[in-house]
Automatic annotation (TrEMBL):
<dbReference type="GO" id="GO:0042392">
    <property type="term" value="F:sphingosine-1-phosphate phosphatase activity"/>
</dbReference>
<feature type="transmembrane region" description="Helical">
    <location>
        <begin position="89"/>
        <end position="110"/>
    </location>
</feature>
<protein>
    <recommendedName>
        <fullName>Polyisoprenoid diphosphate/phosphate phosphohydrolase PLPP6</fullName>
        <ecNumber>3.6.1.68</ecNumber>
    </recommendedName>
</protein>
<feature type="transmembrane region" description="Helical">
    <location>
        <begin position="152"/>
        <end position="172"/>
    </location>
</feature>
<dbReference type="InterPro" id="IPR036938">
    <property type="entry name" value="PAP2/HPO_sf"/>
</dbReference>
<keyword id="KW-1133">Transmembrane helix</keyword>
<comment type="similarity">
    <text>Belongs to the PA-phosphatase related phosphoesterase family.</text>
</comment>
<dbReference type="GO" id="GO:0005789">
    <property type="term" value="C:endoplasmic reticulum membrane"/>
</dbReference>
<feature type="transmembrane region" description="Helical">
    <location>
        <begin position="192"/>
        <end position="214"/>
    </location>
</feature>
<dbReference type="Pfam" id="PF01569">
    <property type="entry name" value="PAP2"/>
</dbReference>
<keyword id="KW-0443">Lipid metabolism</keyword>
<keyword id="KW-0539">Nucleus</keyword>
<keyword id="KW-0256">Endoplasmic reticulum</keyword>
<keyword id="KW-0472">Membrane</keyword>
<dbReference type="GO" id="GO:0006629">
    <property type="term" value="P:lipid metabolic process"/>
</dbReference>
<dbReference type="GO" id="GO:0005637">
    <property type="term" value="C:nuclear inner membrane"/>
</dbReference>
<dbReference type="InterPro" id="IPR000326">
    <property type="entry name" value="PAP2/HPO"/>
</dbReference>
Length: 215
């Protein structure tokens, strides 16, 4: 009817016209993340600023890849003749599998593409996923780091090397252009938290006798 008040805009349109402070802040942080990640991708290609260091970064990349860790842990589990060592290795295998599942789930939900300057050439393409958030290498590095420091008796210099390895693997993800900074930071937090899950669900002959009967 004439003179009637105009119908209110749908809520989603109002949000577009009047973006919230949180939305603006998140958009700004995302833009900063993308800009900084590209600037720090100094080994992303052979022609990059630190392109000559790319082979070394790729070696570091392999050291944090899931396939060597899974195969090495499984081999050690099969070859071990100590019940204590088998218990630790079985839980490490459980931790690595949990890491793969959780990272795959989060990546499938977020579906953030990898950085545009990424030059993926590690292993074969079938072993590399196309999503970026979070960094599986960073998640695995944090998880393995906490696990090793907790369950292996190491001298102080070796403990420092384990921590440095986790940090270098994580940093290499940005330097190679594989991930953005937030992918790595969230990956480290996720890996740190996943270790708590592993400790809470620790597998032992008392809690999982069927698994230990296999070895």
């Amino acid at each position: 009817p004439a003179g009637a008040a105009a119908a209110p805009l749908p809520e989603e349109d109002c949000m577009k016209l009047n973006p919230s402070f949180v939305g603006i802040a998140l958009s700004s942080l995302l833009a900063i993340d993308l800009w900084a990640s590209k600037r720090l991708g100094v080994c992303a290609a052979e022609g990059s600023a630190w392109g000559s260091a790319r082979p070394l970064m790729k070696v570091i990349e392999v050291s944090g890849h899931g396939i060597p860790w899974l195969l090495g842990t499984f081999y050690g589990l099969c070859q071990s003749d100590s019940s204590a060592a088998r218990e630790v290795l079985l839980n490490l295998l459980f931790a690595l599998l949990l890491d793969l599942v959780m990272v795959a789930v989060v990546k499938g939900l977020i579906k953030r593409p990898r950085p545009t300057h990424n030059k993926m050439d590690m292993f074969v393409t079938i072993s590399v996923d196309k999503y970026s958030f979070p960094s599986g290498h960073a998640t695995r590095a944090a998880l393995v780091c906490r696990f090793v420091l907790r369950h292996l008796v190491l001298a102080v210099p070796l403990r420092v090397l384990v921590v440095l390895w986790a940090l270098i693997v994580s940093i290499s993800r940005v330097m190679l252009g594989r991930h953005n900074m937030t992918d790595v930071l969230f990956g480290l937090l996720l890996g740190y938290a996943l270790y708590g899950v592993v400790e809470h669900c620790w597998l032992s002959p008392a809690t999982a006798p069927a698994l230990f009967a296999l070895w």
